[in-house]
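To whoever is on call:

I kicked off a structure prediction for a single chain this morning and the downstream step that reads the tokens threw a length-mismatch warning. I double-checked the sequence; it's 112 residues and nothing unusual in it as far as I can see. Pasting both halves so you can look.
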Amino acid sequence: QVKLVESGGGLVQPGGSLRLSCAASGFTFSNSSMSWYRQAPGKGRTFVAQINIATGTTFYPDSVKGRFTISRDNAKSTVYLQMNSLSPDDTAVYYCNRLMSWGQGTQVTVSS
């Protein structure tokens, strides 16, 4: 059974940084692609970042490119999302994703 558990969210001031973690289990991590999505209040869920675990290839939308970095630790079956230069527009619940599986989400609030 696929299980994705996010952590690392919280309250941060504009311009600050956070690192989210997604601990994965129940599938072959090394053969997967993993993604982060986010859902702001009153809005739909949007793509934030993706990584091919085997190759390390990453993809980002323009809205986060240069500020967010997705990475993985194969030994820990964990994917990270380093978020820098955060703005209030980044406030959302952040979700880890693999195919049709989702984590429970972790809240990120950017506010002074």
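Update from on-call: the warning came from a stale cache, not from the record. Cleared it. Sanity check on the structure: The mean pLDDT is 97.
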